[in-house]
Design a protein that fits this description.
Blueprint (H helix, E strand, L loop, with lengths): L7 H32 L20 E6 L3 E6 L3 E6 L5 E6 L2
Antiparallel strand pairs: 1-2, 2-3, 3-4
Length: 96
């Protein structure tokens, strides 16, 4: 029995779908590879200060830091921002 002849536009569409599927699979593999390489790279952590001196009667609730400063959130709803190099108090922010 003879195989029916396939129309040219149907053959083109089948090849196009196959090529697009292969391109999507390759793209997905590239994205997964980028995630793996970016997320597995070690992150250089900022060093923590050796010692933090808080004013009398102040209790720390949270700590955060930037490149040249670090901040303490107190139980009195204040943010104390210190200079990283000298350890001196730069700014006090009252949280309302």
């Amino acid at each position: 029995m003879d195989d029916p002849i396939e129309p040219a536009n149907l053959r083109f569409l089948r090849r196009l779908v196959t090529v697009l599927t292969a391109v999507m699979i390759c793209g997905l593999l590239v994205i997964i590879g980028l995630f793996v390489t970016r997320l597995s790279a070690p992150v250089a952590a900022l060093p923590l200060p050796e010692e933090i001196t808080l004013p009398d009667g102040v209790t720390a609730r949270a700590f955060t830091q930037g490149t040249d400063w670090y901040a303490i959130v107190t139980s009195q709803d204040e943010i104390l921002i210190y200079d990283r190099a000298t350890g001196t108090l730069r700014q006090t922010v009252k949280v309302d």
